[in-house]
Amino acid sequence: MSDKKPTINDVAREAGVSKRTVSRVINGSANVGEKTQKLIQSVIERLDYSPDKQARGLASSRSYLLGLIYDNPDALYIDQVQRGVLEVCSKQGYELVVHPCQYSSDKLVEDCQGFIRRSKIDGVIVLPPVSESKQLAAALRENNQCYVRMASVDLDDHMNIVVSDERAAMAEMARYLVSMGHRDIAFITGPLSYYSSLERLAGFRSTLQQLGLALPESQVFEGQNSYQSGIDAAKRILSKTTRPTAIFANNDEMAAGVLKVAHNMGINVPEQLSVAGFDDNLLASRIIPSLTTIQRPVGAMAALAAQKIIRAIEKSDPVSSESDFLVKPHLIIRESTAPCTKS
């Protein structure tokens, strides 16, 4: 056997078909019979043939590039997203190009459109908070660009969005903390200009109300979803004369900041203070004490977004079930929370 890399001509010869027929199968054309498609696919697998991406793109007028647009300080979150997208797109012959941007910039839409044009992107996956921009979504639609938004709110047609049901997740967190005897709870939000921050706060607060409790404004502190903002908020909370028995932070980064401050102040977690976060990133299970948190299946969301964007690019039939756009996070209980001992 030769070490030479197999070509499309080799596949055509082994399958007994024309090179054009092989090309049609590679590019997902519907003009090839099912029996012939299966034959060609079996030959491709047996020969371990990998189509040249540049030639494939020229033949189909596509780049086979997916874009990922984000503005998020959490490197662990971005890593989870990329892994989820790559798990899908690499199998489908697509590559991933990432583009960090500034959500608060007046030139957000112009910046993202420039990235898509320069990189000749076939479609983009947009992460929160950038995915919350109505202006960007409108521009993508106006320019007939394939896109999928990952978000915490149902903001778009279901073919263009993957939603994390964060209100329901926060209801679960609120019920858990109350079941542990906590009544005096402080809440560190993310930026209140973000839908995700508002959704989590609303889900937590409304569930407390259903349980006959309140979350007063004096116990709500705005953070920036960063480790340092968690530290800053925790210092304000834990310096009060009357400290809460539990603190929820909008993400694991800020919750880690709370644990740092509690340690420095000699406050034992979870004996004197329960701490919980949101995301369940790699940090959550490795810090001491390990963090009770809401596990948002970021990798699964990203993989679903990649499947949806490729279907849109290739004009495949969309799936209309709830599971095609809605993902449900859930509570993970670890060492940072315990029953309230304060009488």
Model description:
- The chain is an alpha/beta fold and 343 residues long.
- It folds into 3 domains: 8-42, no CATH class; 65-165 and 298-327, 3-Layer(aba) Sandwich (Rossmann fold); 166-296, Response regulator (Rossmann fold).
- Helix content is 42%, strand content 15%.
- It is built from 12 helices and 12 strands.
- Strands 2-1-3-4-5-11 form a 6-stranded parallel sheet, sandwiched between helices. The protein has a 6-stranded mixed sheet with strand order 7-6-8-9-10-12, sandwiched between helices.
- Strand 3 (123-126), helix 7 (134-142) and strand 4 (146-151) form a beta-alpha-beta unit.
- Helix 10 (227-238) packs across helix 11.
- It starts with 7 loop residues before the first helix and ends in an 11-residue tail after the last strand.
How are the elements arranged and paired?
Layout: H1 8-15, H2 19-26, H3 34-47, H4 53-60, E1 65-70, H5 75-89, E2 95-100, H6 108-119, E3 123-126, H7 134-142, E4 146-151, E5 161-164, H8 166-179, E6 185-189, H9 195-210, E7 220-222, H10 227-238, E8 246-249, H11 252-264, E9 274-279, E10 292-295, H12 298-313, E11 326-327, E12 330-332
Parallel strand pairs: 1-2, 1-3, 3-4, 4-5, 5-11, 6-7, 6-8, 8-9, 9-10
Antiparallel strand pairs: 10-12
Domain HTH cro/C1-type: 7-50
Keywords: DNA-binding, Transcription, Transcription regulation
GO molecular function: DNA-binding transcription factor activity; transcription cis-regulatory region binding
